[in-house]
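Most newcomers find our protein records easier to grasp once they have seen one. Each record describes a single protein and holds just a pair of labelled lines. A learned vocabulary of local backbone shapes supplies the integers on the structure line. Nothing more is needed to start thinking about how sequence determines fold. The record below serves as our worked example for the rest of this section.
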Amino acid sequence: MKKTSTRLADGRELIYYDLRDDTVRDAVDRRPLERTVTTSEIRRDPLLGDSVAVASHRQGRTYHPPADECPLCPSQGERLSEIPDSSYDVVVFENRFPSLAGDAGRCEVVCFTSDHDASFADLTEEQAGLVLEAWTDRTAELSHLSSVEQVFCFENRGAEIGVTLGHPHGQIYGYPFTTPRTALMLRSLAAHKEATGGDNLFDEVVARELADGSRVVLSSDHWVAFVPYAAHWPYEVHLYPRRRVPDLLGLDADARKEFPQVYLELLRRFDRIFGEGEPPTPYIAAWHQAPFGPLEEFDGVNRDDFALHLELFTIRRTSGKLKFLAGSESGMSVFINDVPPETAAQRLREVASS
């Protein structure tokens, strides 16, 4: 992998990740952009104890542009985009309309391929491996920022999810706090560790799923994927490395080498859940990593107790129907799942690549 860092016309950082070591990236951003001004603000809810990012500048962000005006495609001639070069393998840049910025964190865009009509599932294993390297490198870099306590790499795919740019891409958020979902995991982890005299809850969850087997979707030498016992979403898969590590930086060479094959297979199965002739399955793919900030409030837990894992889920519950967050989910955070986890796992095994 070759990494080349440069600056866009408004001062934002852009990084090329290339498969070839001899690739030269010297194209200049020729757009007449003014320096980006953001208004991100973090407000803490005193009753719930969580935080909300207020980012009014995002109201003017790019919204469903035609394909020939896509800002994530490479620049061609006088058609200038966020990527100055005429081609790329993987590219990461600071979001022009960030939810988090400055002392309130950082937001980056990850473009998986220059092919506008592709999806992550269309990548080769080599390309998917390069994306993993980019995620890992950005996690390492953002962890050193004083404004970042937790790094979140994720992909939203599909208009139903709320994606406003059709080009295959994801995002990386550097939060200035530990997110509420991670805090819940850490509290459960701490309580279990105290109650059992030191046992790791993540390890027990994975071991139980492997022993039961009814919800296991696929397993390999270094990874295991299963539908969780209490899945929130109609089709939801959690992917764990077999050797527990706190973050992407902890993955060893064997796990990295095997990841593209496993992950691409999961994504391709997701597109086959609802049968032939159906539109691509909308999904969210979310990496959960241990925070880099202090963990004192989670008694007895350290970073190495956390287990890196990816959660992949869709809001489509059946052909032509979406799972909307209604009163119970939105009002009380109590999910009601229409698809039994064992049924979902069985379907995801049925649509395995031959």
Q: What stands out?
A: The chain has six helices and 15 strands.
